[in-house]
Amino acid sequence: MSQQPSKQRHLITVTNPRSPVSEAFRALRTNIDFSSIDEQIQIIMVTSSGPEEGKSTVTANLAAAYAQADKKVLLIDGDLRKPTAHKTFSLSNRYGLSSLLSQQAELSEVIQESGVNNLSLMTSGPIPPNPAEMMASNRMSAVLQELRQLYDVVLIDTPPLLAVTDAQIVASKSDGVIMVVSYGKVKRDIAVKAKAGLDRVGARMLGVVLNNVKRKASEGYYYYYYGN
């Protein structure tokens, strides 16, 4: 059963699928799909250089865009420090990724229906004292391998790159990375430093999403651009 749009206020791809922003997310989805011919891009990490750049909103809308293309999708809130996905989808965060990694819950217990067809959600779970160690664990690698067999696309929302090491750790376990940059807010050298952190762990950069780019013809809309 679908939730009411009011509970998905951040999901413009669901509440207004014909909008220019929703079309931009579909274009982003297509660009990712065509960015690799020989290797399947299945596990995608989304991050940003710093806080409040809109990475969680971008992740949720991209996940919905994949689900609308009849893909079986799982969105993981991998931000074990400041989680937001459970709020976006109005779901419980009693059990989630941290519960699974600490072996306090089974996989089936931490996956919830999002209210969007084809899209499931794994919330962060309770905030642990050792997020980076959890992400670097063999257990995390094993979970991702299991999820490859269950879903067409797995999107992981992580903390900002320059704040903690979590994102770099997850990047090394992912097929590709998308970095969200808030237009006019983040200085170029900061964005370059963030990307350098990804390069150090051998992450595959799929593209950069410029968030909060106002469209002159309609100041109410924000575009999300994709670029290699």
From TrEMBL:
EC code: 2.7.10.2
Keyword annotations of the record: ATP-binding, Kinase, Nucleotide-binding, Transferase, Tyrosine-protein kinase
Keyword Nucleotide-binding attributed: yes
Enzyme class (EC, first level): transferase
Pfam families in the cross-refs: AAA_31
InterPro entries in the record: AAA_dom, Bact_polysacc_biosynth/exp, P-loop_NTPase, Wzc-like_C
Catalytic activity: L-tyrosyl-[protein] + ATP = O-phospho-L-tyrosyl-[protein] + ADP + H(+)
Keyword Electron transport annotated: no
GO molecular function: non-membrane spanning protein tyrosine kinase activity
AAA domain: residues covered: 53-182
Family as reported in the entry's similarity comment: Belongs to the CpsD/CapB family.
Protein name (Swiss-Prot/TrEMBL): non-specific protein-tyrosine kinase
